[in-house]
Amino acid sequence: MIHDSLLRERLVIGDKTAADVTRDISRPILNKPSTSWKVGFTLSVIFLGIFIVSLGWTLWTGIGVWNINKSVMWGWDITNFVFWVGIGHAGTLISAILLLFRQKWRMSINRSAEAMTIFAVICAAMFPVFHMGRVWVGYWALPLPNAFGSLWVNFNSPLLWDVFAISTYFSVSLLFWYIGLIPDIATIRDQVKGKYEKFWYRFFSMGWTGSTRSWARYELVSLILAGLSTPLVLSVHTIVSTDFATSVIPGWHTTIFPPYFVAGAIFSGFGMVATLLVVARKVMNYENYITIGHLDAMCKIIMLTGTLVGIAYLTEFFIAQYSGVEYEQYAFINRATGPYWWAYWSMMSCNLLAPQVFWFKWARTTPWFIFIMSIVVNVGMWFERFVIIVTSLHRDYLPSSWVMYAGSLTEIGLFLGTFGIFFTCFFLFAKFLPVINMAEIKSILRNRE
Amino acid sequence: MIIDKNLSLRNRNKMLVGIWQDEDKLMEAAHALVHAGVKVHDVYTPYPVHGLDRVIGVRRSWLSIVAFLCGLTGFSLAILMIWYMYVYDWPMNIGNKPERFSPSWVPIFFESTVLCTAFGMAFFFFWRSRMVHGIQPELIDPRQTDDYLIVTVETGEGVNEKEVLDIMRSNGATELRERVGGVQTTL
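Output (structure tokens, whole complex):
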């Protein structure tokens, strides 16, 4: 039976049929690239070039070209790692958790959110890998039999957990994304005309025909993968937070880190999804699929998670003072009023205060404003990691080793360059694969009960 | 044994093919066919139609049990790995943590469990669903991945072709075809 709900807005507007969905969503794939795509892609490739140059310089000279040769040994590098890995967590979280909660509005955004996850994890991986310095012996981080006596890796270390967690997370996210793509790749396979295109889409569609038997299994597999991905995401970002929390550095040694990092990941991830989709829906004419209702829902989550993160900032500040440990007290007072006060207050205003505008419906339903806010959120979350890492490390237990730290040109180039990697991948994805899950969208064309 | 033989269209008797464009009419037709005692071979849809698998008598998949077994394998492998490296081969004292089992190994047990479950399940899903990279898809119509909802009934003993076609027609099929040896003719 079909009921058109009087209370809920429709998830897809414009009275679309299944054929319309195929036509609208596969248009950018079947047609020649648009001018906006070419401009965006060229810009991304330029930034990718910056990454390659910065990385080449780093490898040629050694990581001495970064300014981390002092007590701030993590500097921009791990700041960028946590920034990207945080963004990388939201995608799977969005599709998995929203799938488990049966939130059908996820269907318009999950594909691009998952793609974002994969590209962001690739960007994130660059930083710890090249931070190793001698990256050619990077495989030492794996538990491989070796000729150095029986030198196994340290299974008690959160850094090793990270190796396992992030590689598992990347592989499982890629699988989840790919399995979700198969029916849509099959749709494109049956639409494209060119010989080579047909070959590649046929190759990746794995012979999908849309048999009900396959769909039944497919849905079960998606559900189990979502069930697995949810604790996986929580575990991975918890493990990233234990990189800090298991140390004895004032400002890091806190039990609030795991939930606070996870909330921050969802926050920054939704920020990045909003940045991408507000632009994509306009440029690719997807306004009927990614509606104002979707943006509204995303803004509500941004506000909620921003507030959670804000409460975490205030809690850790309070607990530091309440603990009576003078090192902890000093670390937090130094964050707010020391030489890096501007980073701390940027973080506070971008993450805690700015998202509060989403209490107003106007703010949640105005795309250009959401775009600006999503950038603010991204900036704020970068500053959060900068504050955690740099303010805690630049003044340690020994005042004679206190230093000031600023990223070198190479570090800045590497960071900007990762945006090149990210957007190059994203533009290629938008050209060759459907940005919106066609199969799922077709199942919700009318509000069914 | 693992591949679902029902998925292949090769070497089949004459097939009756009905095409719909409305999901609700398709459901009614499937109900009507099953009610009349017709065995529906398969239904091809561009999107998942919930409940259709039960209607046409597709049994619940064993994949959840397979997933559990894969998870168990991953969990055991991780325990075996850490036990071999850290307890048997070369015990190391790090931060005075316990020698035989430390809770700090749990994250690795967990990650390994998830990895093996996900990939093991996906592997068996592909195998069972006859999905291989590059395989030629056996399509009734290229629009079955676009907007056609296609019901196929295999003819044989005890199948009244006329009755099947009548049920399809009266339940809103927009097109009827028969498929003999890979060649389709519109009825």
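Residues 10-60+137-186 of chain B form a domain with the Alpha-Beta Plaits fold (CATH 3.30.70).
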